[in-house]
Amino acid sequence: MNYSTTIANEHFDHLLLNAGGIFCESVDQLEKIQHAPGAGAVMTKSATAEKRAGNPNPRYFTYPDHHNTINAMGLPNLGIDYYLDYVLHHQLTLPTILSVVGLSEEEILANLKKIQASGYDGLIELNLSCPNVPGKPQIAYDFDTTDHLLDRIYSFFTGHLGVKLPPYFDMAHFDRIAKILNQYPLAYVNAVNSVGNGLVIDPETDRVVLMAKGGFGGLGGAQIKATALANVRALRLRLKPEIKIIGTGGVTTGRDVYDHLLCGADLVSVGSQLAIEGPSIFQRLEDELEAIFAEKHIESLDQVRGKLKRLDEAE
Predict the structure, then answer these.
(1) If you placed Cys at 162, which of 24, 188, 209, 304 could pair as Cys (CB 3.0 to 4.6 Å)?
(2) Burial letters for 43-55: b for 16+ Cβ neighbours within 10 Å, e otherwise?
(3) Which domain does 282 fall in, by range?
(4) Would you say residue 122 has pLDDT above 80?
(5) Is residue 59 a part of any domain in this protein?
(6) Residue 17 has pLDDT above 90, yes or no
């Protein structure tokens, strides 16, 4: 199968990449993704202006089923200079997306100005959706703030920008965020981040499993697949074609990748299951996807991508 995909100025030979925040904090981790068979791209950790420790441990929990997680990481990262140095001065094997975030509007703008001044010409992802910083709301749930921020960004920024979105749960919200995003020359959207503010209880101790936020954290893994697919599908139906989509959420098998493609994803990222299995997961998922294509006699991604049918549509 030819997996060739293009977003803005980047060409991808494979469909899969790491979800932001997973296996990407250090150069050592990033390099493991760069050289992982089946990986198509690398996403760096969402970078704040300065190095950040994040929330106290325990802040990440894998369910006993090994397919689901909850976390309250709190944006631990090594700072924008660390990741900017990596994308500018390391020999990169794969397209590498530089993820940025900020704890204020001014910090976000400063990070993007620094990236633009550096001459970096690759894809940049603006994380508008971290649910695990105490006292800080998710920007993309405030539509007026999101519009205002993007307007300020595009008053100076000329790079290739994508945005990472939280999960939306109402059709009116899909309509409203798409109307805002369609006003701007975005390269892509990444849908979705973890489903915020779930709660997991340890049956042995009757305590929550996370330290920060009283145990509340972002849900990941197989449990969020339906929500992720709904967001990819709803956004694909509403966004202008030039805005591509990275589908994120619930990917544990090749069938999950296939379903994201059906809903309209251009690339698919893997989070919780990557943390559980490690970088060998990319080749496993691609092999499973290849088997589905062979069984269904699919010879081109165009036969799959965005081809999900409703029950009231003809075969």
Answers:
(1) 188
(2) bbbbbbbeebebb
(3) 5-51+76-194+222-303
(4) yes
(5) no
(6) yes
- Which of 195, 197, 192 has its CA nearest to residue 269? 192
Q: Give me the active site residues, please.
A: 130
- As a whole number, mean pLDDT of residues 178-205 equals 98
Domain count, the chain: 1
* Nearest-10 crossing angle of helices 281-296, 254-263: 70
